[in-house]
Amino acid sequence: MGASQGADGPAGLPRLALLGLAALLCCSALPRFALSTEYNYTEALDGSYFFYEAQQAGPLPTWNRAARWNGGWRDASFLNDGSDIGKNLTGGWFDAGDHMKFQLPFGWSASTLAWSMVEFPAAYGPPSGSLFQTVRRNLLFAADYIVRSHVNASDVPGENVYAAQIGDTDTDHARWCRPEQCPEIQGPYRPTWVADRTRPGADIVGEAVASLVGVASVLKMENPADPAIPLLMTHARQLYAFAKAFPGTWEIPAGDYPYRYGTHKWQDDMLWAAAWMCRAGEGASYCADAVSFWNVGSNMGIGWCPGMDWDNAFNQASVMMLGMADRFSASFLTTVRTRLDYNLNLWHVSTVCTQPPPNTDSNGDGLVDDGHICYSPKGFAHESTWGTARITANAAALKLAYSKYLPTNPEDAKRQRCWARKQMRLMLGDWGRSFVVGFGCNPPVRPHHSSTMCDRDYSITCDGNTAADPRPNPSVLRGALVGGPRKDDYYVDDRMDYILNEVAIDYNAGFTVALAGLLQLSASTPDWDAYCGTAPTPITCPWACSSCDSGTQPGSNLASQRSNCYSCVNARGVSKSWQCHACVGNATYVASQGQHCLSCVSAGADAWACQSYCTDLSSDIAVLPSCTSCVADPAVRSAGPWRCSVCMAPSVLAKGAAAVEACMSCVRSLKGPYACAVSV
Ligand SMILES: *[C@@H]1O[C@H](CO)[C@@H](O)[C@H](O)[C@H]1NC(C)=O
Ligand SMILES: *[C@@H]1O[C@H](CO)[C@@H](O)[C@H](O)[C@H]1NC(C)=O
Ligand SMILES: *[C@@H]1O[C@H](CO)[C@@H](O)[C@H](O)[C@H]1NC(C)=O
Ligand SMILES: *[C@@H]1O[C@H](CO)[C@@H](O)[C@H](O)[C@H]1NC(C)=O
């Protein structure tokens, strides 16, 4: 079980979730309106893959939706990865908001995404459809990196070498940067560390095998003769034989700081690998291996956990095996089912997190300790503080998948499904806001994530000051699940609070499975409220936030400004939210005008001043921030913010951004504005 804890990096850039086992809410007291629909699970599912595209390292494929040429902010990065061992190890996904490439959570995430596809294929539509193709592209991108990470591929187990980690955590976490610029800022030290016969890593390699077979299985759904399948399977067989012959967990060589605490095991990863090989029809010996890895794991701590995560694939492998009644004996599958019943039932307790039972509050914070499952006052299930939403989403994924294999027990299937739906709905909005960036009502706008928190213009410095600036991240990391609220339902959308606002590739993996599960099951459950027997749960979208939506409809000029508008509402409070709505109320505005107006209002200025003296006079985002600092300046506000508009006259604008700034600065010192305009 990944009972490890996070640690803070030197500059407050922790890992971000690998180290972890994994409010200002303006609106909670407001009138709410209820919609009797489910959340748009398709939109959330598609968003999740957008997030993985934003995490891509190396040269970006043309289809990357976060790439600059597709309207995003990303470009090629870390083009020298692997050069220290003479290999091209560009590609893969950055682990979290940082730029490390760790193969264990990477392999677990990729294989879990593949699992979502084979377990819930109907969620993804036909292979010709766009969602299926989105996933196929992303999974092939991951598999390509795994194949290239297999730097020495051999049928002789002891000759295999697999790249286990790229990057040094201390170096990477020392300074914030855009991935495209990190080597210039952090320095060139970017070591490649490998697993080989002298430094085995059956945990990492097992996850690589699971991913390769998983991706091959997805390819097979579209075209059983896909030429990539034999290539992926050859690597999978070689890596499997290597890990089996050289078991053990991979340990980082001295030099990097230890990226984990506590213990982890390799048996669950090899179980996951063997189960995939067995499922893919690779032969009885893999199925027999799966049984023996299951038996070993079932007697270890990993076999007695309520969930799944990057450090424990025992339960998900167990569920997948239930789908292979033709490969395993009925008595073995009964044993597996009994264990899953036990493990998944661990979630069904009545403990309230804020009322710790005896001996469950060792640090005296009034909350149930990590490792004991409890429910927040709003009903959100928590098992751990760090990345709590991810852990709950992982449990929802397991329960939804498990529910497929309970045909003779419809009551239990319902119990599992309704639990999962309730918890996923809390994450998507029922809690009172969304915890998914760019999705739903009042989503987080300040995830702890380098590339989105920097300005899109690469010439603008991005560093610790940028991180500390409370503004929303200029780019929207659509689809990313953040850490989530605390056990007492406290949450703040603050990127420096990385426990609540971290994002990571493993955070979205189980979440994706759960979304696919809800989507597939929705076809047979047209009325979830009736099925679950609960009163309709209103989607609570505070009007102050939802009023932002009308001016930011998809396809409109200001579509990209919805989350900035929510953020503005949070910054100014409900009573002043109409100021924010005004900024998205002029349909002729281009995005930079809406963006500027919202940040101007967020800074405390009045919308009419921001508009008539700034945005209505220019759409040039290079000069507009100078105008905000002028109209929001308390002295200027009392003297009359019209003074700032003098610096937005065509004659000053024609002289460029530096002249505008000089003029505004002159006005802020309350000199005569016309003299200021002439003197620059
Ligand atoms: C749900 O989202 C998908 C993808 O964004 C979109 O195509 C679809 O129209 C949405 N459905 C509804 C009912 O809004
Ligand atoms: C490294 O591999 C990637 C992916 O295959 C490719 O796009 C890139 O051009 C390669 N880089 C070099 C230097 O060969
Ligand atoms: C790969 O294998 C070759 C030959 O077996 C060996 O010379 C080389 O050092 C190996 N590469 C690595 C990175 O270990
Ligand atoms: C809308 O914005 C334009 C500038 O883009 C401005 O000229 C116009 O006056 C604005 N309209 C209203 C109604 O404020």
From TrEMBL:
Catalysed reactions listed for this entry: Endohydrolysis of (1->4)-beta-D-glucosidic linkages in cellulose, lichenin and cereal beta-D-glucans
Residue numbers annotated as active site: 493, 502
Keyword Signal: yes
Tagged with keyword Transmembrane helix: no
PANTHER family the UniProt entry points to: ENDO-1,4-BETA-GLUCANASE
Enzyme Commission number(s) from the entry: 3.2.1.4
One of the Pfam families matching this protein, by short name: Glyco_hydro_9
Name of protein: Endoglucanase
Gene3D superfamilies found in the cross-reference section: 1.50.10.10
Family statement drawn from the similarity comment of this UniProt entry: Belongs to the glycosyl hydrolase 9 (cellulase E) family.
Signal peptide: 1-36
